[in-house]
Fold this sequence. Notes:
The complex is a heterodimer of chains A (593) and B (86). Chain A has 593 residues and is mainly alpha-helical. Chain A has 22 helices and 2 strands. In chain A, helix 7 crosses helix 8 (151-201), helix 8 packs across helix 17 (396-434) and helix 11 crosses helix 19. The radius of gyration of chain A is 25 Å and the shape is globular. At the A-B interface, helix 5, helix 10, helix 11 and helix 13 of A face helix 1, helix 2, strand 2 and helix 3 of B.
Amino acid sequence: MELQTWIYLAVGGTFALYMGIAVWARAGSTKEFYVAGGGVNPVANGMATAADWMSAASFISMAGLIAFKGYDASAYLMGWTGGYVLLALLLAPYLRKFGKFTVPEFIGDRYYSQTARLVAVLCLIVASITYVIGQMKGVGVAFGRFLEVDFETGVLIGMAIVFFYAVLGGMKGITYTQIAQYCVLIFAYTVPAIFISMQLTGNPLPQLGLGSTLSDGSGMAVLEKLDKIVMDLGFSQYTEAQGAMLNTFLLTASLMIGTAGLPHVIIRFFTVPKVSDARKSAGWALVFIAILYTTAPAVGAMARMNLMDTIQTGPIGDPQANLVYEERPQWMRNWETTGLLQYEDKNGDGRIQYYNDQNPEFAAKAAAFGWKGNEMVKVDRDIMVLANPEIAKLPNWVIALVAAGGLAAALSTAAGLLLAISSSISHDLLKGTFMPNISEKGELMAGRIAMAGAIVVAGYLGMNPPGFAAQVVALAFGLAASSIFPALMMGIFSKRINKAGAICGMLSGLLFTLIYIFVYKGWFFVVGTNMLPNTPESWVLGIAPESIGAVGALVNFTVAFLVSRVTAAPPVHIQELVESIRVPRGAGTAHAH
Amino acid sequence: MSLPEKAEAYWKANISLVIKLMVVWFVVSFGCGILFVDALNSISIGGIKLGFFFAQQGSIYVFVGLIFYYVWKMGQIDREFDVHED
């Protein structure tokens, strides 16, 4: 069958499935809308959490990042998985015992303060909106490449699908579609990886393939050969650290703490029946996430090797050993039309030279070969996963599957984020603050309207991305790490942290982090308003704006502790609340006030 | 034990378990994957340097193990102090 037919079949089939689930899983009460009724099986919730968590960035961008950064991309692998240990050990079971609907609600109750709740709502909305724009963009790109519709139409189709199941079903609809989406995305990710690992090493498990010997007869291991290929062409060594250790350390810490503090992930743990289920569910979530995250390093390394080998076909310096441009494979032609891959024949020999022309040590060699600069002027990292099946010459149905998988990853994360946004609007702002007397039916309607509004805003911003849209790692993770996580953790582990301490802590962590980001990235990300150049030389101690969240968290903890010490202890009923959330018994199901 | 004493003992047991697990969490990721990565890279297992392995694979496997150990051990502690559900 034609590739295009397969793609319509795969994407159309999965979309029909999501719609079917939407009709079946309609929400009838606020409890169903916010926490899927509170009766989700912990393994099923783990699967939904994995889809909720793994976004277009995990599915499409991460392996590409690993392919081009090698060891230095490890911060993302460890950061985005290690956060689940924090979540399981420090937050999820206790917040489940608390048994309410939203993250700001816990902060408001524990710190007996409407102000604290509103600060949390603000952080939640900024972090989630930043995050969701990237998902909408991912949907548009995937449609553009695979279904040959333009970007805006792609975003609109994505919005329509999410609208259908998120507005109708709320958390209930989202939970069951996320389970389906996890199955689609993990199948789509691992199948090409297994094929490629088989081709290169003969080992069907990509995780083991990464450490195996190549089956090309060279007797070299995958990573050994890759190190050699990239270094021979002047690139930096794949398996060794290139960036500064302090920055890698803090980036990893910021991503871990940020992961544990992201509200759209936390609220998934409100949907299980018991405290012990929340613990189990975090473990299952990490199992399902780890299947993709341990495959990604193999995909990255093998895709990089395939790419280099395709272009450099023989000994470096031999004029015959570079790919003739006119004889390039079909996948290169396909990606050139999208602009993500660009070639420029600088020395006019009709062949492709792909090397690091920024490396002064390699420059003399390159000049002696008659090379006049790197001719692959653009190799977008994101194509590594998407082009992977084509590079490995896999059958058309696998390519179609990858298209459906990318869409599943983007849509499932978008829906989770939209629910976090809409529940904080209808439950924290309306019911909790401005219209406390609203009926349950009214609140459910408000939830649906907030969801619809959030989808429209996210879609609009996806089509017209503002400056902050690209700053997911810095902004969303920075906010979650510096404001939300410390407030939640101290609320559980300390009875002494009071209202003044928590508010001062959140605000100082938040301001510290935002100012550090703005100084290097521009005030409110307006281009040209940055006060210092965003380069490693001008960063304080070499700490990138993406890595500052962990320091912001430390500021938050310190300020909250000091302010709480010099002000009055929390009232007795709050101390009793803390005592009760520490004990599993008597969790009951999630409930409203 | 009186009720508040029992609650305190339960919380202590919980905290001590969490601290132990957090130490392992720190050592496999920040330790083996970042701080001591160069030293560990001098050892290769199969075709993969040990430090690189911890940074891109090993730490993740340990994280999974840590959470399930926590689930199992906390279940035991819950029953021991009679605070388990149903």
